[in-house]
Amino acid sequence: xxxxxxxxxxxxxxxxxQCETLEDLKLQLSSxxxxxxxxxxxGQISTSTIQNKASGKLFDEFQYIRDQAVNPLKKFxxxxxxGYMIDNVSLMITGTIHGRNKDEILERxxxxxxxxxxPALVAAVDVxxxxxxxxxxxxxQYFKESDLESAEILDDLNIEIIRNRLYKAxxxxxxxxxxxxxxxxxNVILTDLLEFEADRRTINITTxxxxxDLTAREKVLLLPRFGKLYPDFSDQLAKxxxxxxxxxIIEDVxxxxxxxxxxxxxxxxxHFYEREMNLCRDAFTQQFTFSTIWAWLRSKEQxxxxxxxxxxxxxxxxxxxxxxxxxxxxxxxxxxxxxxxGTFSSETIVKISxxxxxSADPINITxxxxxxxxxxxxxxxxxxxxxxxxxxx
Length: 393
Fold this sequence. Notes:
Distance between the termini: 34 Å
Number of helices: 18
Strand content: under 5%
Order of helices and strands: HHHHHHHHHHHHHHHHHH
């Protein structure tokens, strides 16, 4: 429960939203588990500085756990980093083909996905060069399994295909480790988390590739071969050519039947977020299991995005007296694991939309949520620039 105690509480979120300046925000955060993480920042504080420092603190905490770990925990933590490595590879190649500066791209890579040969990816001009550079990296085995011979030219579409095939191979390997390499209750909880991850990718990939030139067979090659949607529903989704067809298929799946129902104002991303936080809440109810580390990391990542979003609203003077946050703390509070929201009810709590998250924290979205299977290759913009962020709603 020590990991859970480090999450921001509802009252602390309320205090953050009442800050008038970023200096006020810094002061409020200093009384939380973030402590003096901004103490070495001189001059005016920017939103990007807060985001980078908060992400850096999370990385240091994760790395501390990793440094103390022995197998099988060490192997489990290694698996977690592989997803970030795949996203960093995609970001490096995309930035290179669009002529972005090497140092600028490296600065935007997620620290959990860093590996020795990552900077050399600026020299990758085709798939073979990519494989040669990554030969000594942990991702090499996934390149071998992904059959990437068809992606000879490294353009935006092929980079997305490569990323999604790598992610498929990675998730399947991770799932095999969780199911057969761990004992109960670790294996049960982690397979549930990974099955949700696989299903989320399946839904997002098939939804975002409707207007692409990919055939049903090519889409199937991108979809993980496990989860509640596999195999029958994933095959149907790959063949679906309209959003309505995808919706009709998903409505037959018990766990996801309401995900396309936006009558209550929720987007599909909101439903994904709520489902993930519920799974994290369940993981926190177990003691001395690997799953609590996964739940803690996912919850802390959302926390960093929330803090960044609040900071961006303050920086742009876009405060709304009726604006509240939905945080990982909300869903954990449902299980009685954190402080309650006081006078806030579930109806008055609005979720951060995926659009707002992308504009407020594009770097972390690329790194943390690349697993969503989104078919786009937009380079992140500087979060500290007001022109790069939409008005918070």
